[in-house]
Amino acid sequence: VAIIMDGNGRWARARGRPRLEGHRRGGEAVRRIVEAAPEAGITTLTLYAFSTDNWHRPRDEVDGLMELFEAHLRREWRRCARNGVRLSVIGRRDRLAPRLRRAIALAEERTAGGSRLHLRLAVDYSARESILGAADLARSEPALDPPTFSRLINRALHSEPAASDVDLLIRTSGERRLSDFLLWECAYAELVFTERFWPDFDREALGAAVQEFRRRNRRFGRLPGPAAGSGAP
Ligand code: IPE
Ligand code: IPE
Ligand code: MG
Fold first, then answer.
1. Is the minimum distance from the CB of 31 to ligand 1 under 6 angstroms?
2. Sheet containing 168-171, strands listed edge to edge, beginning at the edge strand earlier in sequence
3. Per-position pLDDT tens, the chain of length 233
4. For site-directed labelling of 232, which of 29, 54, 83, 152 has its Cα 20 to 30 A away?
5. 64: Cβ below 6 Å to ligand 1?
6. What are the residue numbers of the active site?
7. Which atom of ligand 2 is closest in space to residue 48's alpha carbon?
8. Ligand 2 lining (C-beta closer than 6 Å)
9. pTM
10. Are 8 and 197 a contacting pair, CB within 8 Å?
């Protein structure tokens, strides 16, 4: 499952609060959803926290977000470790502040043993860049197939082992676009959009999205039913 956590700013504006207050409340929603995910049957959860294009936001907002990420990681890794949550951060690291990079390394190291849920936080993430990074690595691969390329994408993103395809992609706040998130991995993802702003997203909303997913009929290009698949080359 992957989530585009959107709507923090509008959540705050609707309450006459600064945007950063929305981001803070968004961090609380992250904690709730991470706790609820295993019970909802989720084994890998990738959360879009900061896109490469988000660097174009005002300096104050970017700085505030970076501080929140660091504080969140430093505070939450213990809870993650206790609950069997393995935390990884995907995306570019070279533009992050050294102290944030250290907080990421610490959280990843201390939660490495978690096997109940793999939580991937996407920070300075761009799907296009990750695909370009994989293409770069691919130059030294003698034989390239989709599983190999997926592995290279994950290597380009510092995420090992390779995460598999996304089954369910959720976006909050009523927007209906991908905004450069997991373009390769979402080839056959079911898309669920909810009007709710991210700070209001809770266990019930996650459950409803998973229910919606279970009602979908996934076909992967084939025909539905028991006779499907006989025309494969
Ligand atoms: C999502 O909320 C969080 C980040 C992109 C960092 P937004 O900040 O995009 O909130 P809106 O879309 O302005 O409401
Ligand atoms: C996508 O949301 C990035 C994150 C949720 C972190 P944006 O709010 O940045 O996306 P656009 O600008 O509406 O496409
Ligand atoms: Mg937004």
1. no
2. 85-90, 117-125, 44-51, 2-4, 168-171, 190-193
3. 999 999 999 999 999 999 999 999 999 999 999 999 999 999 999 999 999 999 999 999 999 999 999 999 999 999 999 999 999 999 999 999 999 999 999 999 999 999 999 999 999 999 999 999 999 999 999 999 999 999 999 999 887 766 789 999 999 999 999 999 999 999 999 999 999 999 999 999 999 999 999 999 999 999 986 655 566 66
4. 152
5. no
6. 6, 54
7. 6
8. 4-6, 48-51, 54, 175, 177, 179
9. 0.96
10. yes
